[in-house]
Amino acid sequence: MRGRVLRRPRRKRRFKMVSKQLTVTNSQGFHMRPATVFVNAVSKYKSNITIKFNGNDVNAKSLMNLIAACIKFGSNIEVVAEGEDEEAALAEAVQLIEAGLGEE
Predict the structure, then answer these.
(1) Among 13, 19, 37, 54, fewest CB within 10 Å belongs to which?
(2) Backbone dihedral region of 87: left (phi > 0), alpha (psi from -120 to 50 degrees) or beta?
(3) 31 catalytically annotated
(4) Looking at the DSSP assignment, which residues form a beta bridge with residue 21?
(5) For residue 74, is it within any domain?
(6) At 88, which CATH number?
(7) Total structural domains within the chain
(8) How would you classify the pairing of strands 56-59 and 76-82?
(9) What is the pLDDT along the chain (104 residues), one digit of tens a residue?
(10) Structure letter (DSSP) for residue 30
(11) Given 20, 31, 52, 72, which residue is catalytic?
(12) Is 91 helix (H, G, I), strand (E, B) or coil?
């Protein structure tokens, strides 16, 4: 009988997931130009970034999904980041939305 090497299963890293409730202040909401700015900014992060709006979870790194969500001025959203750089990803997403997505 051959000897077997027992290996411990790899532990998955657990991230705490961070989120923040926001109101969209851009007068046009997430239309093509501000959505592109937002997607380009958050796509550099490894974390999963989601926008919760009207009971739906929208992938914030997908331009088409973000535009299809029809997020308008005054909409209440929740930005959620989960992953190894979640704090920085959330901070940049929040800063962009609070600054009007570069259009005000």
Answers:
(1) 13
(2) alpha
(3) yes
(4) 78
(5) yes
(6) 3.30.1340.10
(7) 1
(8) unpaired
(9) 566 666 666 656 666 889 999 999 988 899 999 999 999 999 999 999 999 999 999 999 999 999 999 999 999 999 999 999 999 999 999 999 999 887 65
(10) S
(11) 31
(12) helix
